[in-house]
Amino acid sequence: MNNFQQKALLFCVGVVSIQLLPTLPPIYYLIFLGVLALAFYKWAKGLSLCVLGFVWAASYAVSIQHNQLPRILESQEILIRGKVVDLPVQESHSTRFLFDVETVVAPAVQHSFPSRIRLSWYGRGKEFKSGEKWQLLVKLKRPHGLLNPHGFDYEKWLFQQNIGATGYIRKSSDNQRLSQASLWDVGRWRESLKGYLESALVGSEYIGVIKALVLGDRSDISAVQWEVFRKTGTSHLIAISGLHIGLVSALVFAVFRYLGLRLTILNRGATQYAILASLLAAVLYAALAGFSIPTQRALVMLVVVLGGVYWQRHYKPFHIILVALLAILMFDPLAPMSVGFWLSFGAVAVILYGAVGRIKKQKRLRQLVDVQCWVSVGLMPMVLYFFQQVSLVAPLANILAVPFVSLAVVPLLMIALLLTVLDESLGVQVLELVNVLVALLWQFLEATAEVEFSALALSNVSLLACLIAMAGVALLLLPKGLLPKPVACLLFLPLLFPVRNEGLGHAEFKLVLLDVGQGLSAVIHTAEHTLVFDTGAKYSDKSDLATTVIIPYLQGEGIQQVDTLVISHGDNDHAGGAKTLLSKMPVKSLLTSVPPLFSEYQPIRCEEGSSWTLEGVSFEFLSPSRYSLFEGNNASCVLKVSSVNGSVLLTGDIEKNTEQSLSQYKPDQLKSDVLIAPHHGSSTSSTKEFIRDVNPDYVLFPVGYKNRFGFPKEKVVDRYKKQGINSFDTARHGAITVRFSGDSFADLKSLREESSQFWNWRP
Length: 763
Prior knowledge:
Layout: H1 3-16, H2 27-39, H3 45-66, E1 77-90, E2 94-106, E3 116-122, E4 133-141, H4 154-160, E5 165-169, E6 176-179, H5 186-200, H6 207-215, H7 223-232, H8 242-262, H9 270-288, H10 293-310, H11 317-331, H12 339-355, H13 364-387, E7 389-391, H14 394-422, H15 424-449, E8 455-457, H16 463-476, H17 485-490, E9 509-513, E10 522-525, E11 530-533, E12 538-540, E13 543-544, H18 545-556, E14 562-567, H19 572-575, H20 578-584, E15 587-592, E16 604-605, E17 611-614, E18 617-623, E19 638-643, E20 646-650, H21 656-665, H22 667-670, E21 674-676, H23 688-694, E22 698-701, H24 714-722, E23 726-729, H25 730-733, E24 736-740, E25 747-750, H26 751-755
Parallel strand pairs: 3-5, 11-14, 14-15, 15-16, 20-21, 21-22, 22-23
Antiparallel strand pairs: 1-2, 1-4, 2-3, 4-5, 4-6, 7-8, 9-10, 9-24, 10-11, 12-13, 17-18, 18-19, 19-20, 24-25
Helix pairs in contact: 1-3, 1-11, 2-3, 5-6, 7-15, 8-9, 8-10, 8-14, 9-10, 10-11, 11-12, 12-13, 13-14, 13-16, 14-15, 18-20
């Protein structure tokens, strides 16, 4: 490793190190640290470069943090002007899009205002298109997302995308389109191309896949299709990044170099002209994808490679990767926050490491097979660490899918777009041919996905196990004879022993109140069993909280089946994700107050008096009455879970009528250490008598941040406070875990307080 490579690597280490920070240091501290690093550079070059990398990344992160919506403007009506960017996502009842703010019309803003926000329009009557300028009346909130164990960190994604607020558009006469997109606006081209594809392939079930390959727009890919891509390890095929940009660039380079060598006027500089043309083609293709972060990374790497060829520099592969890494971290110091960053650089590194230095040249087909095996095995530790599962059929699927998409589908798509300019009908015919090819590919992928044991799931893989397995990858890919392969394979064994939380003993149990926004989902763990109480909301056919929160949590905890699922009542915010959970995980028994909603799953009606015991933990329904005295919210299943170590009362959405009934007839049974607040803390629940009879140490409110109902109501929170009861809510604290054991009675932990990083929202 030469001097430049050492310096670049140290700087990159400094940039990446900010990912470990729970909070960002103040800017004056960073300035002082930067000056200090420069002053001592002559005597401590390595340390100084590492510090400078840290200062660069931290300063960039601080600037994004300062660009977020001021708290004082949250939930206020604000009139803004700006431009729609990226392609708006149209759903059945709403439209979502990014908006670059140019002017705040009202109120007068004395604070910094975010330059980019994410907006939703609920309803019909307005159509937003990329590149248009609008005046909009909006209500905004600071970047905030659901925070759960093993779940997607939405706040991290917002931070990396430099989105300073999210919100929705208020109905108002002030909402008006100020101007159409400029003729030269990339957004206008993308919108036109999107409309053309949709009209040319109307009715095609693969339009979502084709739009993803052309525009990077994956909003129309169905949940079923995503599942096939996941099981076959081919999700990377529909992300416009290094693979497709490199392919388009290579095709253009080959064509222009071929023509240049045959034209006398261009003969001398044929290679240079071909490089410039291929780079221009790559930029245009990246523009079609909206210059997303993966395409930006791919472009930077391509510029580094083509730059070396243009100036006829002979760089070693490691040098090229390092220069590309340095360029990307200078351009976007927060790129390491993305999983795609690690996987893309990991894939390139594995391919180069496996290919360079081989004495024997392999045939093309053998090379393709080798590369797919290298990538699948090489990335397996990282994929397991990030996603807790890896496709075992990925090498087989990719051996066919990668060349098929790269050499047939994508080139034909580019040809179709070019032909459209000359003859639209001819372009449509080529698009129809592409649709047939994608349909054939899909049959293969579906068949591959249906193979038994197509994926390996391992929960809670530790970072240490991942690093040890990556060392095993490095040894495994060495040429034959240097090290016995079984020795290298031994380093993969730590992956099979995931990190386990402290187990539960007899009569011990754990409550996990998941953060599902304005809704409810709680999980009760005993030593050997799992109960799920409610499943949060379903927003659309593509989105529900069982998919995004509950199932990832259960899989991350190594739970293979749900022993008991309780659906307290039929409201969407409690029962919306139930059918998804029932279809995607084995559920032994379903108990609910609304059996007709789940007739196909043989449900059992929850009734007062029903009880059972598992590992010394008792479960008992206190309501509803077997005589159906109440309906709606008041008919919610009320479940008490208790043991010698403590108790918790889960109440669904009961209101004062049921509370009064329980206080009258079962006051002694209500006493619990932890209470999940009835009806999210609404003013129609949590009566004084009910609170007195339960007399909990903690009350937990399952609520959404800045929810439109204003839950929990302030007077309700005060009611608990006057009784000396500690209150927590999922909006401020994220997922809340309470462990009932002999060693730590009612030990409560908040995920937001325990595990927050600098990008996370703080109370």
